[in-house]
Each structure stands twice: as C-alpha cells, then as structure tokens.
Specification:
The chain is of the alpha/beta class and about 400 residues long. The protein has a seven-stranded mixed beta sheet with strand order 4-12-11-10-7-5-6, sandwiched between helices. A four-stranded mixed beta sheet has the order 1-2-3-15. Helix 3 runs parallel beside helix 10. The protein is globular, with a radius of gyration of 21 Å. The two termini are about 40 Å apart.
Length: about 400
C-alpha cells in the first residue's frame, strides 16, 4: 500500500527534532554534524537567533497578503539585492526550479519583444541540474529525469561542460541565451574555470545572446563572495537564486538587468506565494548576517581550511579518493569508481556526519556558512573514520545505525 506521503524520495531513516548551529538531534538523542545544510539551504545553520526572531515577529503580524498589494518586506529585500549585485530589478518566487523557469521565460520574452521570436533556444551544459519542472527538466537534459514525462520541452541544446568550441558551434540564429551554473552542484561539484566564464560572457556579447546564470546553489555567500560570478569579474544579464537566500524558508528570486526585466510586465509572470511578507522577512534576516562586516571573509577562510583538510584526507586514502573539487563551502570528494559515494555517505552518517551525494560519484559538503574551523576539524575526524569503514569495493565495514557512535562520545 502506498504511504500517505508520496514516495518520491529515497529518504534516510532519520528524523530530526531540533537543531542548533551546525548540529542536528534526533528524538532519541543522537547528534549529527550537518555538512549538507539541507542541500546548501540552511545558510545560517539551524535555529539562528536573528532568523528565528525575524520569522516569529513577522508571522505574528502578517504572513501573506498576495501580490495584489504592495509588500514592503519584498521591496526592501529587492532593493538590497539590487544594491549588492549586477541587477536592476528582482522577481520573487518560492524555489530554484521556479526561478530558473522564470529566467527561461525572461530570456525568450526579451528576444520576442526585440523582434526576434525565433530566438528561443537556451544552450545548457551536460551535467547541469536546473530543476524538476517540465522546462527545467529539459534544460537539465538528464535522460533519467526526463523518462516517462512525454516529449521534452523544446528550446534547449546541451554541450560539454565548459567547452568553448562546442559553445561557439552551437550558437545560431535561434539562440536566446547561454545558461550555466558557476559550479555544478548535482553534477559533481564541478566549477567552471573562471576564464571559461569570461569567455562565455564575451561570446554572448559577440553574438547578442543573453548570459543566464543559475546561482541557486552557489549564491548567497556559498563561495566566499555573495555571488559566485564575482570571482570571474563578469556580470550576467539575468540570474536565478534560491536555497540559501531564505536560510531554510522557501524563497527564490530572478535577478535581472533592466533590459531584460522591463519586458516582464504585469500579466506576463506571477506567483501567489512569491515574495510574501514572511518569506522576505527571512530573506532580509539572512542578508543582515551575510552582509555583516567580516562574514564573507570568514566563509572564504573556513572554506580554504576545509579544502586543505580534505586534500590531506584524500592523500591518506588514495584507494578511495581521486581528488577534491569545488569552491568555498561547496566542495566535494571525487571518489574512485570502486567506491560508491552512497556507501561513503552512509558510513559518514553512521559516524554522525551528514553529507550529500552528487553526480560523477562525488560526495558533497555544503555546511552552514556559520561553520567554524573547530567544526571542520570535527567533521574531518568523522569522515576519516568513515573512510576507514569503507572497503575498496564500497562495502561499509560496519552496520551501525546513523549517529550511534557520535552519540556515544
């Protein structure tokens, strides 16, 4: 018999009743160090006092009125995002998939309004993940995710990640935009080389194509700058954001230059919940913390510390680990083919460390941005023990339920 909660996920048999900072506890008292942060979403960790207070105070006043009326909290958050990014205007929604869906609509609308409705194709990259709606599934291009949902939505081409020759060959009179994640998260924590991002920007300018960045996972300080595109010294024309923007509260955003945003006029796009007072109170609270003096420098410093620690761990386990990849506090261990990332993920959970599997047999680490070097040391110690418990064939050497060892310490 099917369960009441639709079985669309392969969930671990863990349920958490409370959290504090980078730690989570189950009802029976087991403690876990959270280096997944709800898939890079709990940017301020769990129960952050400023975020909790902002949500509670706003919930006690008004949670939702709809976009039939002005929403001062959204106006404030949009102004702050404009001030701290390339963008001139912001649209709020509820998730990364919605932000990407809206971004795809925006680039098509831009060309149609400029007399070129035939320019509706978005060039995407192999290994991408842009969401689970029909259009973002087509943008992702993964056959496993597309299977069973009918003909894919038209208007997407896929080329090898970061291949500039393939990109220039793919651009033609139907091309509307190039859409790329600065770091592929689900696709294996693979960063696009900064020079490749610069070359993509130049090619878009040369051919009159829009650059659309998917910063759903890399934005909001995840790489040590507020936006990952800043590392390359470029600006997109339009960009999506979600995950960490609300610190765990559902919130997404499309950020755009005026030349794009001005065509999303009344009636062209919308969202019932998007940008409501409660969501934007959360978004403003997250920005309060991330934009505080020294915060992003701390993220960058701790990110380098984590990177160095993972490099040393990789050198101690050459039969398990091929290398380390990523940037800031979005990094991954690339495992050898003989070792399944799911097995190491399970072994780490058995030691009390939560991680997230990614594509290309990578184990992903995306801890809260408030993580300390001491907590990185603790995570590396738990991961070391997990590596010792995984045989080269990928078979865990123990069968302990998750977190029992950590709770026993």
């Amino acid at each position: 018999m099917i369960p009441a909660l639709m079985p669309t996920y392969n969930r671990a048999d863990l349920a958490f009743e409370r959290g504090e900072g980078a730690w989570l506890w189950t009802a029976d008292g087991r403690r876990f160090l959270d280096f997944g942060a709800g898939i890079a979403t709990a940017s301020l960790g769990h129960a952050h006092p400023h975020l909790v207070q902002a949500i509670a105070e706003q919930a006690a006043r008004v949670m939702h009125t709809s976009n039939l009326y002005r929403i001062p909290q959204a106006e404030k958050l949009a102004a702050r995002l404009v001030e701290t990014s390339f963008a001139d205007s912001v649209f709020f929604c509820n998730s990364g998939a919605e932000a990407n869906e809206g971004m795809i609509k925006a680039v098509r609308k831009y060309h149609a309004e400029n007399g070129h409705p035939e320019r509706f194709v978005t060039i995407c990259f192999e290994g991408a993940f842009h969401g689970r709606t029909l259009a973002t599934l087509a943008a992702t291009g993964n056959e496993k995710y597309l299977a069973g949902f009918g003909p894919p939505v038209q208007g997407f081409k896929h080329i090898p990640f970061g291949n500039m020759n393939a990109l220039r060959d793919a651009i033609d009179g139907s091309t509307a935009a190039v859409m790329i994640e600065p770091i592929q998260g689900e696709g294996g924590v693979r960063p696009a080389p900064l020079d490749v991002l610069r070359q993509i920007r130049a090619a878009c300018d040369e051919f009159g194509v829009l650059l659309a960045l998917d910063e759903v996972q890399t934005g909001m300080g995840r790489t040590g700058k507020l936006w990952a595109y800043e590392w390359a010294g470029i600006e997109p024309d339009v960009m999506s954001s979600a995950k960490g923007i609300g610190g765990g509260f559902p919130l997404g955003a499309i950020l755009a230059k005026e030349k794009v945003a001005k065509y999303l006029k009344a009636g062209t796009h919308g969202s019932t919940f998007g940008g409501n007072p409660l969501a934007c109170a959360a978004g403003n609270a997250v920005l309060d913390v991330i934009l505080a003096p020294g915060f992003l420098e701390q993220v960058e410093r701790v990110g380098r510390y984590l990177w160095d620690g993972l490099q040393k761990l990789a050198s101690r386990h050459p039969k398990l680990v091929e290398g380390v990849q990523g940037m800031g506090l979005l990094v991954g261990l690339k495992l050898r083919p003989e070792v399944a990332n799911g097995d190491l993920q399970n072994a780490a959970a058995a030691e009390g460390l939560l991680t997230v599997a990614a594509g290309m047999n990578v184990l992903r680490f995306a801890p809260p941005l408030i993580i300390t070097e001491a907590e990185v040391d603790a995570a590396l110690g738990l991961l070391e023990r997990a590596c010792l418990c995984v045989a080269p064939q990928g078979t865990p050497a123990n069968g302990l339920p998750g977190g029992e060892k950590a709770a026993a310490q």
